[in-house]
Structures are given as structure tokens and as C-alpha cells.
Amino acid sequence: MDIKKATEIFDSLGVIEVKYKNSPVWIEKIDADRVQVRDIETNRRFDVSVYDLVEGN
Q1: Which residue among 1, 46, 49, 52 has the highest number of C-beta atoms inside a 10 angstrom radius?
Q2: What is the pLDDT of residue 56?
């Protein structure tokens, strides 16, 4: 995913599925090309590269 798409998802009023390593995550913060995400299943927060995120299907 690129930073523009991540920002669109973050700013969206709807719910858009995002995955990190096949796990659903919620984008909580964007800082340059790094994002803080929360794993929806475990509630664990961590930082990843925006390029490692995938819009889910």
C-alpha cells in the first residue's frame, strides 16, 4: 500500500479492511512512511512500514 491510500483509509468514515501479514489491522497513526496499527484479533499495537499493508478482500 502507498502512503496516499493509507491516508485515505485512515481519514475514511467507513470501515475498510486492511491486513498486515494476512492479519486484519486497524490504522491508528501515520508518520511519514511508518504507520501504527492495532491487530484486530489480539489488540496488540505495533509500527510497520506502510508498504507492508494490504487492502483486504
Answers
A1: 1
A2: 78
Quote the CA–CA distance of 2 and 26 in Å, as a whole number. Answer: 16
Model-level pTM? Answer: 0.88
* Region at 20 (left for phi over 0; alpha for psi -120 to 50; beta for the rest): beta
> Domain coordinates of the chain in residue numbers?
3-55
Fold classification of 3-55 (topology level) = SH3 type barrels. (2.30.30)
Residue 52 identity? D
pLDDT at 33: 87
10-residue mean pLDDT profile of the chain (57 residues): values are 95 94 96 94 97 90
